[in-house]
Structure prediction request, 224 residues.
Amino acid sequence: MTPAAGIDIGAATAFLEEIAPEYWEQACAELMKQDRILKKLIPKIGPGFLRTRGDAFSTLARSIVGQQISVVAAQSVWNKVLIVLKNKVSPKTILALPIENLRACGLSGRKVEYIRDLAAHFDSGQLHADQWKGMEDEAIIKELSAIRGVGRWTAEMFLIFNLVRPNILPLDDAGLIKAISLNYFSGEPVSRHEAREVAANWAPWRTVATWYMWRSLDPVPVDH
Prediction:
């Protein structure tokens, strides 16, 4: 990311360092020792780190929007959602919005149902959002997977991009599998088993390694 004109680069750098996950530097150092590919890839990609975006509800809603479509298409749809909600994304604003308004943003009928069900779960207090920070990864995945349209991949994206958990391996993520194929298998097709074997070398920093795999495909940092 290039700093905008007029911004003090030193101040901007200090701000970025302040919001980096506390484990990031240690994780990168250990991954470069543990993995021959990451030893070359991390310095090649250069500075950068995982950034969170939005609150829990917004993160999950964005993940639903992004299911089975490209990152560019998902961003376009999400931008339209923000416009109709006047940038006020919450369970209540989603539930108050007419269904046809959400459909007009480019959401399928099924995704509208999913987002409204997500909003209803948050609005009713069925979710233990205030307890998630202290819960185990798998317990959170189980709770989130009870929501319509929220499968394991969506829950894992939430653990990565909202809770910034350090050791998540989203094996259902096409980008991760493609990156493992290109970086470790010379572009040959890769099974989940093979991907898991590669990632065994990444523990306990599989989130960080996954982020660098994504960056190897696209230099623009991934967010959700």
Summary: The chain has 13 helices and no strands. The radius of gyration is 18 Å.
